Each structure stands twice: as C-alpha cells, then as structure tokens.
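Hey team,

Filing this mostly as a record. A colleague (T.K.) asked me to run one chain through the structure pipeline before their review meeting, and I want the input and output archived in the tracker in case anyone asks later how it was produced. No errors, nothing strange. Just documentation.

Input sequence:
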Amino acid sequence: MKYRKFGQTDIQLSAIGLGCMGMSFAYGTPDNQESLMTLQESLKLGINFWDTADIYGQGANEVLLSQMLKQHRDKIFLATKIGFRPKVSNPGSPISTEMIVDGSKEYIKNAINASLKRLDIDKIDLLYLHRVDPFVPIEESILAMSEFVKAGKVSYLGLSECSTEDLLRANAVWPIAAVQSEYSILSRDVEKGILPLTKELGMAFIPFAPLSRGLLTNKLDVTHLDKTDFRSRLPRYNGEYYENNEKIADEFAQLASQLKVTPAQLAIAWVLSRGENIIPIPGTKKRQYLRENCGAVDIILSSENIDSIEEIIKRHPNIGPRYSPRESNFINKIKTD
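Output structure:
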C-alpha cells in the first residue's frame, strides 16, 4: 500500500480507503461475516482509512465496524457522517426508511452522540456533515459539530456533496479538513469548482464511487440486481443511458486488458492521478474485490492512457444523471420535507 498526506496534517492515510456503505446498505443483502473478514483483510493490506455513516443500515454499519474497532482502534482512521434522519410520516407512526436532511444544532448533537455509542469509541477521527441543510445556515451546523472537537470527541470536520460556497462559509467558521463527493471517469462535476478549491485550500478530497457504482468494472448485470439495490432506480442503470454505459464499460475493459490491469484498477488509478490530495474510497464487502482494488496504487498512467480514456467517453456521451430527481434534491437544496 502507498500513503498520502491527509490535508495539512502529518497524518498518512492509505492512498485507497475503504467505503463501508455496501456492507449494510444500498447494494443488496448484507453478509456480515464476509464484511468482517473484508475489514480484517483491509488491515492486512495496509488500508488504515474506513468510511461509514449513521444512515447506512440506520446505524447497522457503525455497529458492524465497532466489532473491529474494539481490537484495532489504533490502526484505523475512521470517518463517519451525520445530517440525514429518517422521516416520520405522522406523529407516533413507525419510522420509515425515507430520509430527509437535518442540520439543526439539536439533531447534530444527538446524532454524534448516537454514532459514538454505536461505534463504541471515544473519538471520531473525521466527522462529515453528510448533506447541507437548505433551511439551516451552514455556520450553525458547523458550530454544532465544532463543539465536539472542542470536547475531544471529534478530531477533524468535513463536508459531503457541498458547493464551493458551502465550503468557504463552513471553513470560515471552523477548519474543514476534507470534502467528500462522487468522482469517477463518469462523474466529473467536482472538476468545475470543488476539486480545485480543495487543492487551493490544502484540504483532502475523498471521492466515493470511483468505479461509478460498479459500471466501470464491466461485471455489472443490471437485470440481476437485488430488489434492495438502489442502483436499480438510478438513471445510469436504465434504458438508453444503460445501453450507452454498457458500451463505455466494454471499451474501457478492452483498454484495461491492453494495459494488463483490471477495469476496476484502471478506474481507481485514473482517480488517483487527478491530484495528490485525492484519497478514493471504493466500496466493497468482498475480499476478492478489495485485493483487486488495492492493485491500483501501483499503476502509473501516461498522458496517452488518459487520452484513450477520454476518447471512450467522447464516443459515448449519453451517460445520464448520477441520481434520480429525489436523490438530486439532497444535493441541489430543493425542499424534501
């Protein structure tokens, strides 16, 4: 494993972290035994950066990770996220799985304490605001989070899927160490503002879904997705967009074969090549894919390799939006409640 500096600190994080969402949430039926073995394997491979969130399985993912943290806390730089909460349809009714954004001071306080309890740790290394609440000034949310830094229960603060304005306003209140957002060959929006701004401000940029949620592996068959897999309702995995993206995946796999690497390794290597402040967190719940992903750190792409990738995208531009309208609401600050 190779390592990269975490922002302006002296902390060295594995150049590839581990996204843990799929172990408990969004990508089909969980397999806790295999997930725990994958977490164990990540330590053997030199990965010291794990990413979770309180909504992954409504806390189940944090509880899962706590089983490993009890034995290996000193080996893991742990990131979690708060800012979503389940929506209650009517007072006294059961909590549904539908989520809304809540950046209020009271909710943030309760959410952080709940995460600490589920994780069974004294301090969170990196705490993100999962989404920016359009009805709460971001300054208020960051101030609430900073109280936990002052109390010694959180080390660093971050933002997830924020705008450049959000980032500047938040950073004026308390130092923001990292920004997390989707970034891959097929998702490039952050190149317009957020990515260059993190470089300018000396922050870490943490891309999730560097494999485009499996599209770039050329192994994804959407006709066999589990009914609980949320990709089944995303535009890129349906209709004309999926037809376009299958062509990309096929040509991308051919290029990877020519370079004697796997498509997953090539996709992660491309993300790594975009800046030294970038630490991608490809998610997996299986050891075989974890080992494969780690091979990306040794791949050096030439300018010709990168040009070849760009040509594939140019030939098939109809990629489609990465989220459905409802998921986009959480990013574009449209009222969701």
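Quick notes for T.K.: The chain has one domain: 3-212+264-299. The first helix runs from residue 32 to 44.
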